[in-house]
Amino acid sequence: MGKITLNQVRKSFGEVDVIPGIDLTINEGEFVVFVGPSGCGKSTLLRLIAGLEDTSGGIIQIDGMDATDLPPAKRRLAMVFQSYALYPHMSVRKNIAFPLKMAGMDAAEQDKRVNHAAKILNLGAYLDRRPGQLSGGQRQRVAIGRAIVREPAAFLFDEPLSNLDAALRVSMRQEISELHQTLKTTMIYVTHDQVEAMTMADKIVVLNAGRIEQVGSPMDLYRSPANLFVAGFIGSPKMNLIDGAEAAKHDATTIGIRPEHITIGGDGPWEGVVGLSEHLGSDTFLKVNAGALGTLTVRASGEVMMHHGDTIRMAPQPGKILRFGADGNALA
Amino acid sequence: MARKASNTRKAVVTIAAWSIGFLIFFPILWIIILGFKSEGDAIKTPLQVLFSSWTLDSYYDVQARSNYARHFWNSVILSVGSTVLALAIAIPAAWSMAFVPGKRTKDLLMWMLSTKMMPAVGVLVPMYLLFRDFGLLDSRIGLVGVLTLINLPIVVWMLYTYFKEIPGEILEAARMDGASLKSEILYVLTPMAVPGIASTMLLNIILAWNEAFWTLQLTTSQAAPLTQFIASYSSPEGLFYAKLSAASTMAIAPILILGWFSQKQLVRGLTFGAVK
Amino acid sequence: MATAHSRTAARLMLSPAVILLLLWMIVPLGMTLYFSFLRYNLLMPGMETFVGFENYYYFVNQPAFWSALSNTLILVLGVLCITVVGGILLALLLDQPFWGQGIVRVLVIAPFFVMPTVSALVWKNMFMNPVNGMFAHMAKSLGLQPFDFLSHAPLASIILIVAWQWLPFATLILLTALQSLDREQQEAAEMDGAGWLPRFVYLTVPHLTRSITVVILIQTIFLLSVFAEILVTTNGGPGTASTNLTYLVYAQSLLNYDVGGGSAGGIIAVILANIVAIFLMRMIGKNLEA
Q1: Which one of A44, A52, A83 would you mutate to disrupt binding with C, by most C Cβ within 10 Å of its Cβ?
Q2: How high is the ipTM of this complex?
Q3: Model confidence at B81, in pLDDT bands (50, 70, 90)?
Q4: Does B50 lie at the interface with C, CB-CB under 8 angstroms?
Q5: C210–chain A nearest CA distance, Å
Q6: What is the mean pLDDT of the segment spanning B105-115?
Q7: Fold topology of B68-232
Q8: Which residues are bridge partners to A206 per DSSP?
């Protein structure tokens, strides 16, 4: 239950190929995150899987069955929308029960399932309120509740946290992860936020301009990005990318080194002048002007007292330098 | 935000606004007053009219002379019937245009509205002959059909602007939840659009109630609504101010009351989406 | 938002409205067009003969046609001017804080609910009648000669009556638009040193444009075919002084029983309306895009 296969799935709007052709397998029970900059086609891809848009070509299989031409209602998928898309004229209870009512389930069974979902999501006290009377986080939980009562083959999430404030986003992120642990149902989650992708996913699909740049576990992507795009996209602050003579020393067109893989002090080979320093308490991020190397971001642990204008020496940690060729792809 | 308008200023505005409001409303007030006067008093100077005695005679006379109840029911049936029919045709159409817009949607809307611009006289003769040949003259069914058609463009347009305000994601959510198209429209779209549908309905009841071209041309007695009832008082020999006033009051009172009670919804509907 | 399923459904659900309106446009209009090429008089049934453009020729070449055409335009433009300008002023007034806003609103909106036949009769008899009308009483009490509005200024009188009916519509739409003005924007402009007049010209007026467009569009639709008011008050007279195109066609076909001529007039009215429509739609299309 919940295996989804895309085979050469294409989508074009008029002349524009939004998705030129994607092959992807999502295994049963996996938490897959589609991540990429805005306009990369990740939401479109999700909507193709949901059946809210027609494919221009290719095959979508759900549990081995061809679902390419099935209407959304027949695909046994549930979706949580960015705007939550709750029915404003119905109580929370009716919102959650709506898919069951549409499936023609009898009232007693509906009640049982709604109450069960409400218990999982801590919504018991709000069942008779209208969505308008709830906070953002509660609305989000109602939307999730509406999705889980159907016991779908897979859940689709379309940037579900982007309307929440920062603190709530962190806690909802954990709730969704826990929900996945409990239900063990396939989940496909779309976001532009690489932190969400890194923290939640079993498998991350990095999309750019409608193409898959890389598929892999969060740590795979972090350790060995397949190309410059993934290298730049995954990780925060961004990986430092250095061209020119320094890269040539490593037989590469470009080399990448993450801010946390640069050690300050001693007699490191690189020298630079501290520009901006951001003190977060636990970490300090320094923007270092390193001459021919360009501006490097360096992470130092704890409260490092460096100031604007200080000259420092830096050394890349051994084995952490990533090498990229002229085509942007990683070199072995 | 809380800037206090001076009371003097507020008083001046109050006086000005009330005077203008009174001036605009005065003709209606005047016929209400005249309706309760005797024929002899009704043609006197305004001051004499005000201080003459009050009477219900004119209302009795109107009732004796014409069948108010029948005209009233005809008006109700024509306006409500044509509005409900127009809504039934327009809701699916507006759904299509608002949620599955195509390249031609804007043109289609404009075309629909342009049919409203077709002057009724242009087609008066053929309509008259068609009605005659189909035996629809002076029938409520025929007139409900015509009123439905002439108001349909406005109903579609108004509903379209209301539906546009409903986020498409909610309808998609319903689709994901397994709702068929019928359930989607019936259980999700329509309840959410109730305020919009209500004001569309109100405006069209008013327009149909007051429609005075086709109702005058295509009815004589059996299906004649209140517009026809009033027109029968326009002949010179039947010109008695008090009776005319009483009849006028009776013709406009129902819609005036309905309009006053629902003016909030109505105003929203009237803006045709021009005011967000 | 669109899949093949929903597009098919959309087409299906759109079709009743489109087909009905298409029929409504084509069938009677086609018949009118056909009649307009016939010599067809209701008093002489069975004598219909094809006469080509003769009906158009006679319809256009009667003196009444040109006066009807100009009367139609004067009526539409006159009422539009009064209601738009009056509506803006009135809306600005009612937008100020004052005591009893709700009641005044109710008073102002009332004429919109009055059916045209009633308002025409009331104005004609109770106000404009040269003997017993209120204006006559007022003139007499001031020692003046009563003025016979409907005989001496028939078109102006009708414009006044129609404007009274439509002023509430314009006022309420514009008032609603004013109330939706962004207060912060106004305050920002005030901080920038903009006085009352610049704020009105640069912020309020542009904000009202869309609403004014809607007012003009909707009113024009109804004003082009003003009929009951003329039928009840002046019967198009004296002479043709207050005959508009609608009334002229009515008179030709139903009072003179000349169906052929009336139909030709109807087609001309349709063409005129379409010219106005194209003009308006251009304007509206632009203003409603945003």
Answers
A1: A52
A2: 0.83
A3: very high
A4: no
A5: 29
A6: 80
A7: MetI-like fold (1.10.3720)
A8: A35, A214
